[in-house]
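Changelog note: in this version the structure field was regenerated for every chain. One regenerated record is shown below for reference.
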Amino acid sequence: MNRTQYQKQKRKETQAERVMNYMIDFGSITRVQAMQDLGIANVTARISDLRQSGIPVVAEMVEGTNRYGDRIRWAKWSIHPYACPDTKERRRYAN
């Protein structure tokens, strides 16, 4: 098999798959993490795609302050713990 045949067989990972794998590997994802780590500008659309495909993604609103001292809120998404394919991740949420 030559290189072009191999490249045709290998499917490129979609942005939604990248977001899902990130949440499995790191537990959650925010808009900033999606942009910095994955290069995905519209993570909310990818979260919507995952939900439409049956992945139970839950959102948690996190509060903090910005560099000007203003109180701000942002979403942190994660896959529901009992849907995680990794048993280590399930145990982390069970305690």
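Spot check on this record: The longest strand covers residues 57-65. The CA atoms of residues 53 and 82 lie 17 Å apart.
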